[in-house]
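Sanity check

After download, print the first record. It should look like this:
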Amino acid sequence: MCRNITTLRGLEPAATPEEIEAAAVQFVRKVSGVTSVSPKTQEAFDKAVRAITEAATELLEELPPRKQPPPTLPPLRRRAAAAAAAQA
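Expected structure tokens:
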């Protein structure tokens, strides 16, 4: 579907609310075709992001743990990992 959405289930530590919301934003952008939110689309976009964030949070809480971590880090963790690697 959208290559920018990464697997959040199985992350250690668990996915943060910010990571779940970022994935929801990417999903809503992809499905709606809205890349930049305008005053006309803001309310509907925000409502969809909230609904997807809530559903994804509930899903991640109810699924059993993964046996292996996801193959890639979410974008918010990539920045931190790159900064840590640069300091090392």
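If your output differs, re-run the checksum step. Summary of this record's structure: Helices lie at 17-32, 42-62, 75-87.
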